[in-house]
Amino acid sequence: MFKLFRLAAFVTLIGLFNAHCKKENETALEKQKGIHYKEINSTLNFNQTSGLKLDINEDGAYDFEIYKDKYKTDMDSLKGFFVKNLADHKMIEIKLTHNPLFDCMNLMSYLGEEVISGSLTEEYSWDSKNGLLALRHEPNPTFIARWSDGTAKIMAVRLSISGKTHYGWIKLRYSRENNSITVVSYGYNRAVEGPIKAGQQQ
Predict the structure, then answer these.
(1) If we measure between CA atoms, which residue out of 93, 80, 86 comes closest to residue 155?
(2) Selection from 103, 96, 95 nearest residue 126 by Cα
(3) pLDDT in tens, 123-172
(4) pTM score, whole prediction
(5) Whole-angstrom Cα distance, residue 108 to residue 131?
(6) Which residues of 127-142 are buried (b: 16+ CB within 10 A; e: fewer)?
(7) Fewer CB within a 10 Å sphere, N or C end of the chain?
(8) Does residue 95 contact residue 125 with C-beta atoms inside 8 Å?
(9) What is the C-alpha to C-alpha distance for residues 116 and 7, in angstroms, rounded to an integer?
């Protein structure tokens, strides 16, 4: 009888321990939900030797890099700011805008509050090709292109995290005075396949 009592008590303790572990796991999962947001205000100009690498989901691996490049021939000289995908991620890019000199495409830009999700209109696509931010034809002193008017803009990103899709954004601002690109902030939705508004912080 005493052995049966000890066995019942042991089974009860195991049950309580498992329930506690399950609750802790559920609490950890709850913390994973919501919007991950970070403000960084890091700037890249043509005097720097390396680009700006971003670890958006903070897993220790870089996701995107804001970088600079140049192309020179006897007839022309070009400099540009670009975004490079460093993993299995994608950006919203504009179809039929491929630039063979830099092997890039024009990036779609948002001003804020637009919803980023898997739904796109016909002229855009989720692509992993490098994205163009600003371009300069020398000796012209200023950069041109969609992102170079000095207004802060937002690019959409689709992250692949452990094989699952997460939507996010990166906010950038070009300075005409300094001919530089600043990564202002970024964010992504921790919920798998969950949409996010451009610039959403919480």
Answers:
(1) 93
(2) 95
(3) 999 999 999 999 888 888 778 888 888 899 999 999 999 999 999 999 99
(4) 0.82
(5) 9
(6) bebbbbbbbbeeeeee
(7) N
(8) yes
(9) 55
